[in-house]
Amino acid sequence: MLDTTPNPAGLKSKDGQFAFANEAYRQLVNAPKDIAGLYDCDLPCDTAQFASTFAQQDKHALLNNKTVSTIDIHNYAHGYDAFSFHKRPIVINGEPWGIQFYAVNLKELVNLEAFAEVLALDKSNKSFSTLQPGGMQLTSSQEVVLFWLLRGRQTKQIAQLIHRTPKAVEKQIANLIARFAVFGVTNRATLIDYARCNGWLSVIPAQLLKQPVSIMINQ
User: Fold this and answer.
1) Rounded to whole angstroms, how far apart are CA atoms 217 and 219?
2) Could you give the number of structural domains in the chain?
3) 130 and 100: one domain?
4) Taking 70 as the threshold, does the pLDDT of residue 109 lie above it?
5) For 19-77, what is each residue's pLDDT tens digit?
6) Less Cβ around it within 10 Å: N or C end of the chain?
7) Is residue 4 part of a domain?
8) Does residue 1 sit within a domain?
C-alpha cells in the first residue's frame, strides 16, 4: 500500500531505523533504494541535521500512542519545500514496534483550505481557482503581505509577523490595491475578495519557505 501511494511514506522501527520508504520519499530526500537499516542522519539530504528532532517526535508518538503531525520545511533534494508529516505509532502484540509515516505537500493542504474557505463564504461562487495565478507578478514583500491579509491578519499583526512597521505594511496594501485595480479592486475588502477567488489563497510566498524547521502541531 505504501509503495503505491504517490505521497512520501514509509516505516521506521522504534529505534529510528528505516524499515521501508516508498519511491516518493526516497526521491524527496535523495535516499538510495536500499534505505532499510539507515537512519535519518545517514541520508544525503539537509534533513539529516534534524535527525534528533525526528527521533523525539517519533518517541512522543510512541509514548503517547497517538499520531503526531508536523510541519517540515527543508531544503529537500528538489529544493526548499514544505510538508506536513503524520507519524502513526505501530503496536504489535501490545508492544510498540515503530512508526508509519506519510507526508502531504503543504501547498496541497493550502489548496484544500482555500477551497473550503471560499465555499463557506459563498457556495454559489463558480469562479474559484486553486491554481497558481498567472499574469500578475508581485514583489516578495507584496506576496507575503497578501498572504497574511487573506488569513485575516490586521495591519499591526502583519507588521509584527514580517518585522516591518505598520506604515510600511499599509504602503504595500496600497500598492496591491493599485496592482489589482484593473480587476475592479478599489479597497482592502475588494482586494481580499478578488484574491480569495482567483488563486492567491494557494500561493505560499517563497520567503516563508527558506527557514528549515520541523514543528509538532498537535502536541
Assistant:
1) 6
2) 2
3) no
4) no
5) 999 999 999 999 999 999 999 999 999 999 999 999 999 999 999 999 999 989 999 99
6) N
7) no
8) no
Q: Which has the higher per-residue pLDDT, 111 or 10?
A: 10
Q: Who contacts 159 (Cβ-Cβ below 8 Å, separation ≥6)? A: 165, 166, 168, 169
**Residue 114 structural domain:** 108-208
Under 8 Å between Cβ of 159 and 201:
no
| pLDDT at position 123 | 47
Quick one: what percent of the chain has pLDDT higher than 90? 65
- Which three three-digit cell numbers place residue 166? 505598520
Residue among 92, 83, 103, 93 nearest 13 (CA)? 92
Residue 194 lies inside a defined structural domain of this protein: yes
Query: What pTM, to 2 d.p., does this model score?
Result: 0.68
Q: Which residue is it, cell 505594511?
A: 169
Is residue 3 assigned to a domain? Answer: no
Beta 9-13 vs 95-105: how paired, if at all? antiparallel
3-state secondary structure the chain: CCCCCCCCEEEEECCCCEEEECHHHHHHCCCCCCCCCCCHHHCCCHHHHHHHHHHHHHHHHHHHCCCEEEEEEEEECCEEEEEEEEEEEEEECCEEEEEEEEEEEHHHHHHHHHHHHHHHHCCCCCCCCCCCCCCCCCCHHHHHHHHHHCCCCCHHHHHHHHCCCHHHHHHHHHHHHHHCHHHCCCCHHHHHHHHHHCCHHHCCCHHHHCCCEEEECCC
Question: 124: which residues sit within 8 A by CB, 6+ positions away?
Answer: none
